[in-house]
Amino acid sequence: MAETKAVEVCVKAATGAPNVLGDCKFCHRVILTLEVKKVPYKLHIINFVDKPQWFLEVSPEGKVPLIKFDDKWIAESDGPYVNGEKISAVDLSLAPKPYHIEIPLEHFKGWKIPENLIHLHNYLKLVFSLETFEKTKAEKKYVIARWKPRIEA
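Structure tokens predicted for glutathione transferase:
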């Protein structure tokens, strides 16, 4: 049986700890996926204070995560949805949750998602404005009605 070649992945180093995995949600998502799928991988932790020359040659923009497939380095796709440019099952699972939490919390408790969470607001605005989301969501008054007995009990 042929040996599976490990996928190479470049990820961000921790601030102040250049040899430790850092705080990057995009890198986390990539290596978490590889772990869950049991894909063998080799991790390259990139110190953003002193990026290695080889890394800048394969990633001129200096962004991570970066994945090597078939001897070609590929940048992880940025996009408006959780998995990049196209809506995925993750978005379809995630989108209803903040909708059904935000409405009763604002109505009964006066709580709103903090304005400084710009990326979250942009994401919610995007998914909440989808024609399919609009077509399938419950009206706010019915979301409030569902929660009223639980909140006022």
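The longest helix spans residues 96-109.
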